[in-house]
Amino acid sequence: MRLFLDVNFVFRLQPCSFGLALLCATSVFADAALPHGQLVTSHGATRGCATCHTSQPLVLARGVLAECRECHGDSLRLPDSVQVALDDSHRAGFARGGEENKAAEQEPLLPTKNEAGPGMSVTMYYDDTRIGAEPNAMVLIPAGEFVMGTNTRLSDEGPEHKVTLGAFQIDKYEVTNLQYKKFIDATNYKSPQHFENRTYPKGKVDHPVVYVSWTDADAYCKWAGKRLPSDEEWEKAARGSDGRNYPYGNEFDFNKSNGPVRWTALKQAGDTAPVGAFADGKSPYGLYDMSGNVWEWTASWYRAYPGNTRPSENYGEVYKTLKGGSWWDCSFYQCGISAPAYNRAFFLKSTKNKSFGFRCAKDI
User: Fold this and answer.
1) Same domain, 92 and 148
2) 99 with 149, same domain?
């Protein structure tokens, strides 16, 4: 069996425990050819599961498999060489097994307190909307040049380069549950899987809608007389024209966005937050939640940036680009790796999970 594994991708996107997260990505994105067990990182090193699995099948604990399916759903495909089993060595190595495995297959607990936590201007859950059911108000992004990408991190985020865009508009907030409900009610469109009886969970009226595929996001934006933003438009709206790392500046601050590091610091299970809850985390143009809360679909295919000399089998018209990071797990890094404005993810258009949402854009 010949497998491809891009650890650069895995480190940023997979919600699983690190070692087994590698396997999750292998099973879903096994398109190219490298010898089984050879795991190539963005730095060209060979490490990880290959230490144990150069000549024997990988073993995947059932609870971790369930975690991987949170992201990849029914599209998760395991190669024949993967055994799904409860193996003592993996159970010890990943601190899973028995009741822990059962717990991993269940929905995570919601935060224990409904309060406005550090950095938030509103409580986590409420029933009366602040934002409204109509499509979001939009912000004008002026024409001009901005700095896109970076030279200091992962290969697909660079090289840093200048891009000139015309003026456009983009939503001030991520599309909410209530706004999406108005769309599905008006069009008889299918509802997301976290809706019950075609309505959103109690208390989450202004939380960003999740469990939406690229096609779902595109359909909503078209219904609203808008479109999905491009990768370039999204990054300019988040980053401004001064080349900052985060929407709010150059220094990471976990109290300015809804990210996994913040939930770790609060010692609570994470969740989406009402859109616009982090006023100090706004972008230079006044947009909310351009870092954290939910990953946001863009119109762009996942392609190499101009001047990028690091080839990847994933570039092309296969995966769509997402931007912005989310509230959910940043894996073993325990850091703000998904928070920078230049960060990007790539997934099949059909993928949907509890950390993917969107906002819309519009031509002037």
Assistant:
1) no
2) no
Query: Which residues are CB-contacts of 246 (< 8 A; sequence separation ≥ 6)?
Result: 252, 253, 256, 257, 291, 339, 340, 341
Angle separating helix axes 62-72 and 18-28, nearest 10 degrees = 50
Nearest to 285 by CA among 134, 143, 148: 143
HEC readout, 4-16:
CCEHHHHHHHCCC
Q: Looking at the domain assignment, is residue 129 inside a domain?
A: no
Least confident of 105-109, 241-245, 310-314, 341-345: 105-109
Mean pLDDT of the chain: 77
Compute CA distances 349 → 29, 72, 289, whole Å: 13, 11, 22
- Identify whether residues 184 and 96 lie together within a single domain: no
pLDDT tens digits, residue range 179-223? Answer: 999 999 999 999 999 999 999 999 999 999 999 999 999 999 999
Closest by CA to 60, choosing from 94, 12, 99, is 94
* Residues 310 and 206 grouped into a single domain: yes
Secondary structure letter of residue 84 according to DSSP: E
End-of-domain residue from the set 55, 88, 104:
104
- Which residue among 80, 104, 128 closes a domain? 104
What sign for the dihedral angle of Cα 313, 318, 324, 325?
negative
Q: CA separation (Å) from 195 to 184, 201, 224? A: 11, 6, 21
Contacts of residues 72-78 at CB distance under 8 Å and 24 or more positions apart, as own/partner, are 72/24, 72/28, 72/351, 72/353, 73/351, 73/352, 73/353, 75/28, 75/348, 75/350, 75/351, 76/24, 76/27, 76/28, 77/27, 77/28, 77/30, 78/27
Return the closest-CA partner of residue 134 out of 179, 173, 97, 164: 179
Number of domains present in the structure of the chain: 2
Please tell me whether residues 258 and 183 are part of one structural domain: yes
Q: Residues 156, 45: one domain?
A: no
Residues 154, 303, single domain; the answer is yes
Task: Please indicate, yes or no, whether residues 155 and 55 belong to a single structural domain of this protein.
Answer: no
Per the CB < 8 A criterion, the answer to whether 288 and 219 are in contact is no
Mean pLDDT score, 314-340? 81
List the domain range (segments joined by +) for residue 88.
2-104
